[in-house]
Amino acid sequence: MRVAGKISSSSSSGPRPTVLLLLGAALIFSLFVVAIQSSFFTTGSRTSDPNREKIRILSDFQSRVQQCVANRGLGMTADIVDHCKLVLKFPPGTNSTWYNAQFKIFEPLEYRYDVCEAILLWEQYRNMTTVLTREYLDVRPDGWLDYAAKRIAQLGADKCYNRSLCEEHLNLILPAKPPFHPRQFKTCAVVGNSGDLLKTEFGQEIDGHDAVFRDNEAPVNEKYARYVGLKRDFRLVVRGAARNMAAILNGSTDEVLIIKSVIHRDFNAMIKELPNPVYLFQGIVLRRGAKGTGMKSIELALSMCDIVDIYGFTVDPGYTEWTRYFSTPRKGHNPLQGRAYYQLLECLGVIRIHSPMRAQRKQDWSDVPSKEIIRSAHAAALRLKMGPSSKQDDLGPFGSCKVWGTVGPDGGGPVSGSPDMSDTRKFSCYNKWEVAPFKSLRREAQEHYFQIGNVSLYKMDGNKLDDLVCVRHTSLT
Ligand SMILES: *[C@@H]1O[C@H](CO)[C@@H](O)[C@H](O)[C@H]1NC(C)=O
Ligand SMILES: *[C@@H]1O[C@H](CO)[C@@H](O)[C@H](O)[C@H]1NC(C)=O
Ligand SMILES: *[C@@H]1O[C@H](CO)[C@@H](O)[C@H](O)[C@H]1NC(C)=O
Ligand SMILES: *[C@@H]1O[C@H](CO)[C@@H](O)[C@H](O)[C@H]1NC(C)=O
Ligand SMILES: *[C@@H]1O[C@H](CO)[C@@H](O)[C@H](O)[C@H]1NC(C)=O
User: Fold this and answer.
1) In the predicted model, is pLDDT for residue 451 greater than 80?
2) Membrane-spanning residues where (predicted)?
3) Ligand 3 atom, smallest distance to 97 CA
4) Which ligand is nearest to the CA of 444?
């Protein structure tokens, strides 16, 4: 083929070989070669592309996501770029009055996502442990002296230069092994703090879930019962909320508090005052996607629940200010970015959105891709990512395990609240979850644990779940 190209181009250069003509000939020749090569490669890949079937599965999946966004997105649309990428668009004329201080722009009306990455990430989340434990620090290289120090703000990394000192700082919040398990609950409600909650009466519906997740200073009492319910199980807290926690909890002593980022003096003071179980969150930081504590609550819920229903997130059109159901409006991060991401998550089968503008629609989820469809899209995305040379092992649940550890029956150290634990926590209400016997877990959670070889998966570093710390338990109690 190359030879043919050469002949035809040299003949076209003609009898008068001026510099210009020669240059022209060279140009034509190289175009020829490029054309021949590219046509060679495309026909080659068309006949023997090992990815063809996976791309077809993912393209079908994209069409479903697109249809789902059209049906459920309250005016949002999805433009498909390729088998992985798509762009979510708000309708023209959407009021973008939200200034993004970080990028110094008004909030954009289009958001680009990689659906393949998103589906890999969120399906992985369903198998994760998302609270920090003693076994994690034991197994992780430099777990105590390096990593633990990073989770202790102010109290000081400099005060954590040997293991026993680090332990002192973290003891109050460090269970030996995971207190919660994947698939522990069938249905969960994650309740944000949006002022929208006062436009509906979702209270009873929220209380009908197996577990309810709230965040920070969200009050739960008779005054708001009709809107946000009364059930309380988990609460994700940031430092600013620590000082008010006793008043907010108002005697709710077994509500589990999960600290969002780092332990801090204010938290230590709070822990000493309250009998509630307190743990440290061990999730990831999403750089794109949605910001805020609400997103973290979703991550936490997804690591324990089959179905995650969200209420009180700012997800309807027409926002001009950031509202909370229990206080006056205030400044907040911008809602369009979150709204787009939550809509994507709904159409990936990760969450189900409830809001005033969706309150009247019947609870019909038939346009959200089914579990089987999601599973096959996940498998296709994983094979594409790992490439043709990947071994079967790379594709199993441990393909991302970077560090392995084993914990025996009495490994891992003292259980929170046991006599060898600090006096402060001796009377905490940890026992609702932490020492519940394995056999009392929901059947699906037990089955999952056996299927995954009694292994707990934790994130290692960074914003993805590509590297995991994996801990095998030789006995379950
Ligand atoms: C850790 O450091 C403290 C303070 O310097 C010291 O008292 C303690 O013995 C050390 N512990 C270990 C295990 O080295
Ligand atoms: C605290 O709970 C009690 C009932 O247990 C209730 O009477 C009281 O109003 C609550 N206080 C607040 C501030 O909600
Ligand atoms: C957009 O929002 C601003 C500020 O809230 C408001 O003044 C303006 O009328 C809004 N425009 C439209 C078209 O809704
Ligand atoms: C999650 O766990 C299930 C077993 O319950 C397993 O079949 C599946 O492959 C795991 N998924 C991932 C992404 O690791
Ligand atoms: C998981 O734990 C159960 C109960 O202790 C045990 O029977 C089973 O052999 C364990 N599985 C693995 C793969 O270790």
Assistant:
1) yes
2) 20-41
3) 2
4) 4
Asked if residue 91 has pLDDT above 80, the reply is yes
363: in domain: no
By most ligand atoms within 8 Å of CB, the mutation choice from 127, 181, 348, 458 for ligand 4 is: 127
SS3 309: strand
| β-strand partners of 111 | 88
Are 221 and 241 within 8 A, CB to CB?
no
Residues above pLDDT 90, as percent of the chain = 51
Cα 458 to chain centroid, rounded:
13
**Same domain assignment for residues 163 and 280:** yes
Instruction: Give the structural domain span for 28.
Output: 2-48
Kindly list the strands in the beta sheet with 352-353, ordered across the sheet, starting from the edge strand earlier in the chain. Answer: 278-280, 256-259, 234-237, 211-215, 185-191, 305-311, 352-353
Q: What's the rounded Cα separation, in Å, for the pair 189 and 212?
A: 5
Name, in order, each residue with C-beta under 8 angstroms of 340's C-beta and a sequence gap of 6 or more.
76, 88, 90, 111
What is the Å distance from ligand 2's center to 301 Cα? 27
User: So what's the pLDDT on residue 410?
Assistant: 63
Number of structural domains (the chain) is 2
Segment 303-328 mean pLDDT = 89
Q: Is residue 110 in a domain?
A: no
Same domain, 269 and 157: yes
Nearest to 400 by CA among 450, 462, 308, 345: 462
Tens-digit pLDDT profile for residues 125-162? 999 999 999 899 999 988 888 888 888 865 555 667 78
**Å from CA of 271 to ligand 1 middle:** 25
Q: Are residues 184 and 307 in the same domain?
A: yes
Q: Are residues 135 and 41 part of one domain?
A: no
Model-level pTM? 0.86
- Whether the predicted pLDDT of 41 surpasses 60: no
| Block residue for tokens 């004329």 | 93
Domain assignment present for 435: yes
